[in-house]
Amino acid sequence: MGESSDESKFLKEFYIPGYVLSPEESFVSAPDVPHCPVLVFINSKSGGQLGGNLLLTYRSLVNEKQVFDLGEETPDTTLRRIYLNLEKLKAEGNEYAINIQERLRIIVAGGDGTAGWLLGVVCDLKLSHPPPIATVPLGTGNNLPFAFGWGKKNPGTDRQSVLSFLEQVKDAKEMKIDNWHILMRMKAPKEGACDPIAPLELPHSLHAFHRVSASDELNKEGCHTFRGGFWNYFSMGMDAQVSYAFHSERKLHPEKFKNQLVNQSTYAKLGCTQGWFFASLCHPSSRNIAQLAKVKVMKKHGQWQDLEIPSSIRSIVCLNLPSFSGGLNPWGTPNSRKTCDRDLTPPYVDDGHLEVVGFRDAWHGLVLLAPKGHGTRLAQAHRILFEFHKGGADHTFMRIDGEPWKQPLPVDDDTVVVEISHLGQVNMLATHDCRSKSMHDPTSPRTHTDDQNSDEDDSGLDEEQRKFGAADTFRIPDDVDISRLS
């Protein structure tokens, strides 16, 4: 079906000529500079057939060479090539390339893991003009897209649906969000396997596939040290246990997990079978957060303090975005009394602070469905430290941005340490339905008294540590099935 003149004019606003994308392309007389040039990255293995169908639709609407299948080429390779070519063209005085780079936006279609992958790559590449990113929800939870107004239901893949999404991208506003560095250290086992956890069982965002190098100042002899990062949340306890059961089931029977509604239904059933709704009866007290770990928070620079965790808390969430477990907001909006008495603020996504929330069980979690429901507000902090010592449990469950793993705990007198600290920011695209709040929005008054965006913590970091992840770029190893990220 041919394009109407109006549609053709609209699509030119997103079109990038081939010679801008690749040095191998021959120069042609450039059309008018597009208002909103886009690079589109699609996880073709996400959302069942949706990813593949979306790939075909986008390639039929814009230059097919500006639409990339993440199953064929990694985003770090793609962006490095394109930006090197843009810099070459700029050095030659090409004004068109300069305008393209200034206006460039990225669309990424996939689950939260795929979106986080792209965000990490853009963060690590230290691009001269980092493009803001819009996210298409193709996963199960879709917390990242929902937080910025892109919805949480899998989208249509037909021509009209994609045109409508492109219209939203063109009109979207830019918003900065914090990103968080996470370090995990544990002693190397004296006996048994070299690695305490099978590499493929750890989230890609922890770079567990390659431990930090011997030259990394965080490396300690006799220890395994992993580092990586996250955008939305780190959680530990029963919620991560249910998520781990879901991912394990999907890994065993991938053919049963092709539909978003089926996935969500299966997730809810696992919440019951894992005892999350009857945690007080099924869950041993040795697995409660207070029994598992000593938690410290740093609310102001350089001042660690112990965080008291109620004995009934079985799940703890360190939240960056107001979207968890399918779009719920565990922190809510503290009233004026809480703001005054405890110095609590709304959950800004660019204030350099995480919201730390606790839950007793799944019934406690259901209060989030109420208009003003929230979890147990524990703290807001820009650094958080978990120390695990030998206790009644030999493992717990952890989760980063939807990716869970089973974490061994100390069996001797050693310690497992997880430390989370503020790293930097990246640019997102948000629609008018955006749920996330910026501290720089005039309608969202800033109430923290210290400098939330202070970079003083970064002053002592080497170049390795300034990166979002541990690798040269935030990449997925070649032997990992990227369908795990959806």
From TrEMBL:
Residues annotated as domain DAGKc: 33-186
Compositional bias segments (type: Acidic residues): 452-462
SUPFAM superfamilies reported for this sequence: NAD kinase/diacylglycerol kinase-like
Basic and acidic residues bias spans: 463-486
Region (Disordered): 435-486
Top-level taxon: Eukaryota
EC number of this enzyme: 2.7.1.107
Catalytic activities: a 1,2-diacyl-sn-glycerol + ATP = a 1,2-diacyl-sn-glycero-3-phosphate + ADP + H(+)
GO BP, sorted A to Z: defense response; phospholipase C-activating G protein-coupled receptor signaling pathway
Transferase keyword on record: yes
Keywords: ATP-binding, Kinase, Nucleotide-binding, Plant defense, Stress response, Transferase
GO cellular component, one term: membrane
GO MF annotation terms: ATP binding; ATP-dependent diacylglycerol kinase activity
Record-annotated membrane-spanning stretches: none
Subunit structure as annotated in this protein's UniProt entry: Monomer.
Function: Phosphorylates the second messenger diacylglycerol (DAG) to generate phosphatidic acid (PA), another important signaling molecule. PA is required for plant development and responses to abiotic stress and pathogen attack. May be involved in the accumulation of PA during cold stress.
Protein family according to the UniProt entry: Belongs to the eukaryotic diacylglycerol kinase family.
PANTHER family: DIACYLGLYCEROL KINASE, DIACYLGLYCEROL KINASE 5
Protein name: Diacylglycerol kinase
Organism of this sequence: Acer yangbiense
